[in-house]
Amino acid sequence: MIAAALRPALGSPLGAYLRLEIRRQLRNRRFLIVTMALPLTLYLMYTAVLKLGADTPGAPSLASLFLASMATYGAMAAAMSQANPIAVERATGWTRQLRTTPLPRIGYVLTKLATAMLLTVPAVALVSAAAVVVNHVDLPLATIAELVLAIGIGAAPFAALGILLGYLLDVDSAQGAMTLAFFGLAIFGGLFFPIDSFPEPLATIARVLPSYHLGQVARSIVTGASIGLLNVAALAAYALLFGGLAAWRYRAVERRSGA
Amino acid sequence: MNEQPRPDPLLAVAFTDVTQRYGDVTALDTIDVAIPSGQTVALLGPNGAGKSTAISLLLGLLEPSAGRVATLGQAPRAAIASGRVGSMLQSAGLPTAARVGELVDFARALYPSPLARDDILARAGLEALAGRRVDSLSGGETQRVRFALAIAGDPDLLFLDEPTVAMDVESRQAFWRDMRALGEAGRTVLFATHYLEEADAVADRIVVLSGGRVVADGTPAALKANAGERRVRFSLPADASNHLDRLDGVVGVSRHGSDVTITTRDADATVRALARSQVPFRDIEVVGPDLEGAFLALTTQSQPIGATR
Fold first, then answer.
1. Which of A91-100, A105-114, B112-121, B196-205 is the least confident region?
2. Which of A74, A76, A172, A199 is the most buried if burial means most Cβ atoms within 10 Å?
3. Which member of A11, A23, A96 has the closest CB to residue B92?
4. Inter-chain CB proximity A96 and B61 less than 8 Å
5. What are the pLDDT digits (tens) for A58-80?
6. Would you kindly state where each structural domain of chain B is located, as residue ranges?
7. Is B277 exposed, middle or buried (0-12, 13-18, 19+ CB in 10 A)?
8. Which of B80, B88, B158 best probes binding to A when mutated, by most A CB atoms within 10 angstroms?
9. CB atoms within 10 A of CB A237
10. Closest chain B residue to A23 measured between Cα atoms?
């Protein structure tokens, strides 16, 4: 039913562009490693091979908590992945070529946004599947679906950040800046080490980062707790902030590139 | 803005008093050119003459500093949005990791009434390459993919900016064979080139740009006839001081080391003046008008030959 409803949309210029972009990304080895192979490997290393830490009875298992962290990590990587392609395609003139076609001008950046958000799905789904299959984490399909959906939507600030960097920086600096921002957010947002173990003021800084809030949303879902309003509000605020900045840079670049 | 006369819908392309400046540089200087539907027109000129600027204006990638530009009788961006215009920009990058066939499918989805997929691949000579990734293609093959994207929408009007730049001689000839076929099918084709042979062989009409101005506009035959100019060639020691451009009839002078070529309206007068002068020339010869001569004469008035940037 969903597929039938989507068919006309996929035949449209925007749908066709989205399909092309998803295919291209899924063919990109670097993308697959950073968004899927790396979080999956880390997850299995921590929880199935090294078995770091022991579970406390009555508390959520480490296998489920670290699943939330690595799903968030993979989704963040996927959401921010469009920084470099945007910088490259602006430099090579592909965006200019697109402006000479009937694709609406806003279509380019909208497609990048949709690509970034949609590509979080396989990243989250893969780690969830590993948690269920390898670690026998008790995760009903409905919970996995909720996790995929919530993280996908919650990744909006990161998608906006990736687009912002792609329009802000040139090819040489975009990839580096993205990597730096990404690992900074992942490490200091408590995705690798729980922030309970952070000394002050690091723990306070962590609680301000969007990565921390997305991680909290994911943890709430896997542990069956209700999603914190504060987390949702923080992510929405970051989405507005990065989205606003990205829109401002996008307009500036569009104006400069003429007409 | 709102008192403008309606653009003529039968004109594929119309420049009305168009000037384009980049800072202090005037790329186009009060250009007036109208191209009726169905013509194949070459925009000929040395690099920096304003060819790419003209095409960018027609595609709505630039707004003119002054004057009006109409594409298919509308504002350029409206014409682009209608899907009746195809374009091949100079060295526009293709998205990495995409396959040739996927790009063609994508391009088809952008236009309301595209050509058939196989037709596009055949016309662009890409049948064997449909499954290849664009990053693995040679320069000439990449250029053919750009051409495929340009024709995918079955456009009424086609812009090609230096389309054969990365092609070898053979692909170039094949490319222009296809282009002629497109022109014969009633499409309007405007292509920029600095290859004279291409303009002569393919175009119904040649617009010569130099230094941002239209210095000639006509059929290849008319251009040759009108030129009427001859060239006087001789050798001259490189250090010989001279004021050859002041000789009778001279319209242009160029020097490559000791080789001097003078373009003249009146070869007899120039040769007589040369003989009277103290210029120590050797091996003099007078050559009749041809397209090359016409082109050089036209473009050298504002820019020295050989200094094509």
1. B196-205
2. A76
3. A96
4. yes
5. 778 888 999 999 999 999 999 99
6. 11-84+155-224, 229-288
7. middle
8. B80
9. 13
10. B98
Task: Decide: B245 and B253 in contact? Cβ < 8 Å.
Answer: yes
| C-alpha span between B7 and A251 (Å, rounded) | 30
Residue of A nearest to B134 (CA): A24
pLDDT for res A38: 93
Query: If we measure between CA atoms, which residue out of B50, B58, B116, B115 comes closest to residue B85?
Result: B58
Does B136 contact chain A (CB < 8 Å)? Answer: no
CA distances from A9 to A2, A4, A120, B157, B163 (A): 11, 10, 21, 28, 34
- How far is B102 from chain A, CA to nearest CA, in Å? 7
Residue in the block written with tokens 């222009």:
B176
Chain B residues with CB under 8 Å of A94 CB are 92-95
Q: Looking at the predicted complex, does its ipTM rise above 0.95?
A: no
Q: Are strands B213-218 and B205-210 parallel, antiparallel or unpaired?
A: antiparallel
**Cβ–Cβ gap A23/B109 under 8 Å:** no
* Confidence at B9, pLDDT banded by 50, 70, 90: low
Cα separation, B26 vs B61, in Å, equals: 17
Which two tokens mark B286?
């007078």
CA distances from A37 to A49, A84, B7 (A): 16, 20, 58
From the list A112, A116, A102, A96, the residue with the least C-alpha distance to A254 is A96
Nearest chain B residue (CA) to A13 = B110
The hierarchical CATH code for the domain B11-84+155-224 is: 3.40.50.300
- How far is Cα of residue B186 from the mean position of the Cα atoms in its chain? 20
Residues 6+ apart with CB under 8 A from B153: A101, A102, B83, B84, B85, B86, B107, B108, B110, B111, B112, B113, B114, B115
Name the class of domain B229-288: alpha beta
**Is beta strand B85-88 parallel, antiparallel or unpaired with respect to B11-22?**
unpaired
Task: Give dist(CA A77, CA B97) in Å, integer.
Answer: 19
Chain A contact present for B109, CB below 8 A: yes
**Per the CB < 8 Å rule, is A13 touching B110?**
yes
Q: In what order do the strands lie in the sheet with B85-88?
A: B85-88, B157-161, B188-193, B40-44, B205-210, B213-218
Residue type, B254: S
Q: Cβ contact (<8 Å) for B98 and A259?
A: no
Pairwise CB contact (< 8 Å): B93 & A258: no
Show residues of chain B in contact with A88, CB under 8 Å.
Answer: 93, 96
